[in-house]
Design brief:
The protein has 2 domains: about 75-320, 3-Layer(aba) Sandwich (Aspartate Aminotransferase, domain 2); about 320-460, Aspartate Aminotransferase, domain 1 (Alpha-Beta Complex). It contains 18 helices and 15 strands. The chain has helices at about 5-15, 15-25, 25-35, 60-65, 75-85, 100-110, 125-140, 155-160, 165-170, 185-195, 215-230, 280-285, 305-320, 325-340, 370-380, 385-395, 420-440, 445-460, and strands at about 40-45, 50, 55-60, 115-120, 145, 175-180, 195-200, 230-235, 260-265, 275-280, 350-355, 355-360, 400, 400-405, 410-415. Strands 4-10-9-8-7-5-6 form a 7-stranded mixed beta sheet, sandwiched between helices. A 4-stranded mixed beta sheet has the order 1-2-3-13.
């Protein structure tokens, strides 16, 4: 008797939160309940989620950048159905998976600097772990230089190059690394001058804060790395696959030529976890230098048929629907709409945007009463202010957004690349209403901040 998934889904949804708290992650459930994000979702389509009352939500988090093509894209779903129906064998272990060869070829065709070899894994953080190992064996050095506020994953090696101490606290000694500020080439040069750096790892746009490097910074970093004999690792886990309006985010910087590129998230098509580490042949040959070392870095679930099919279908979807061009066009519409609001609302400090990766930074206002509210919320908890924007966007307008990082006053938007202009208009209208209410002190948004602040103080005690 086969498993009746409709029955399983029904049973799981009936005790959804109780089961999760009992067997998975009770603290995460507490977080969701505190901010009012504890909804029961039952269906998804494109940029939309639907809850158990059939209310529609606009998903502008995209699973932290996973759903570039929206949820349940029919073309990707069909490709996966086809490969399952084919009974094509996978994970033979002693084999050269055919679909992996095709996906690797398609990825290398899209690298403007002609990187030739692809190592497949299961996630972005696994890709970063591989990149760190590849750089260390290639250069014979150990230390990895990373940026302040960097995020490259949470496994031990990736955590070593994390620029946020809140993630690192409590986990003991990590791999040797050095942190430098974004846009400070002098600091990078000093770090490289020590002589023990295997690589400099960077995000073309830093996800924590949506920070875009100054023009010429990454190219200057590349020159310093070449001079010092350190590799350049580009983390495209969130910026890749068209998110910024180009296939790779680093393509916005002319002349940039990374040694290793890490890709994941949207390569999955939103269905099957997959990661890819694209590197030069010379690097690959250092890692896998002999038959005896042919398995020196490997993972059981690499190159599975479903993952490779999802990757191939995602690349085809990106091309067939002109999503690079669409991301560029729709991103400008977001920016134009937000910039038009900026003179009217004192809290809006900056708009940062590349394609459909958007950050709205808030700053201290001039008006006395608003400044008092700003000081009050930041005195209670530096995370409160932007969270008090995401909550009314969700509660009142059913738009799912996120704060861009710990102690960062930035609202982050990662809409699917398949959204329509009407979705942008809806968001802009909703955001405008939130700003109008936010600029009334005291007011309903400030009441949310007060309640969250009270909870934060209680929790800290």
């Amino acid at each position: 008797m086969s498993l009746n998934m409709q029955s399983v889904l029904k049973q799981s949804l009936e005790r959804h939160f109780d089961l999760f708290a009992e067997h998975v992650h009770p603290q995460w459930l507490r977080v969701l309940r505190t901010i009012g994000f504890d909804r029961v979702y039952t269906r998804a389509e494109g940029p939309y989620l639907f809850d158990d009352q059939n209310r529609r939500y606009l998903d502008f988090m995209s699973g932290w950048g996973l759903f570039n093509f929206g949820r349940n894209h029919p073309d990707i779903k069909q490709a996966l159905s086809d490969i399952i129906a084919s009974d094509f064998p996978g994970w033979i272990a002693f084999d050269t998976p055919a679909l992996a060869s095709v996906l690797a070829r398609e990825l290398t065709r899209r690298t403007p600097n002609g990187l030739e070899k692809v190592y497949f894994c299961n996630s972005g953080t696994e890709g970063v772990e591989a990149a760190i190992k590849f750089a260390r064996v290639t250069t014979g050095k150990e230390r990895i230089i990373h940026l302040k506020k960097a995020f490259h994953g949470l496994t031990t090696g990736a955590l070593s190059v994390n620029g946020d101490d809140s993630f690192r606290a409590g986990f003991g000694s990590l791999l040797p690394s050095a942190e430098v500020p974004l846009n400070d080439l002098d600091a990078l040069e000093r770090a490289l001058a020590v002589g023990d750096a295997a690589a400099f790892i960077f995000e073309p746009i830093q996800g924590k804060g949506v920070l875009i490097p100054q023009e010429g910074y990454l190219r200057g970093a590349q020159e310093l790395c070449r001079k010092a004999g350190a590799l350049l690792i580009c983390d495209e886990v969130q910026t890749g696959m068209g998110r910024t309006g180009k296939f790779f985010g680093f393509e916005w910087e002319e002349g940039l030529d990374p040694d290793i590129i890490v890709l994941s998230k949207a390569l999955s098509g939103g269905y099957v976890p997959v990661g890819a580490v694209i590197s030069r042949t010379s690097i690959y040959n250092k890692v896998f230098s002999s038959m005896e070392r042919s398995m020196v870095h490997a993972t059981t679930f690499s190159m599975g048929n479903l993952a490779m099919t999802a990757g191939l279908a995602s690349l085809e979807t990106l091309k067939d629907y002109n999503l690079l061009e669409k991301a560029e066009l729709l991103g400008r519409q977001f920016r134009d709409g937000l910039e038009a609001m900026k003179p009217r609302f004192e809290f809006i400090k900056d708009i940062r945007q590349r394609g459909l990766m958007i950050g709205i930074e808030f700053g201290e206002p001039r008006a006395f009463d608003l400044k008092a509210g700003w000081t009050l919320t930041h005195g209670l908890d530096k995370n409160l202010f932007t969270q008090a924007v995401t909550i009314p966007l969700f509660d009142d307008h059913r738009i799912l957004t996120q704060v861009a990082g710990h102690n960062i006053d930035v609202l982050k938007l990662l809409p699917p690349l398949i959204i329509g202009e009407e979705d942008i208009r809806y968001f802009l209208g909703a955001f405008e209403q939130c700003m109008i209410r936010l600029h009334k002190f005291p007011g309903p948004v400030w009441e949310i901040a007060r309640k969250l602040g009270k909870y934060a103080v209680t929790a800290s005690r």
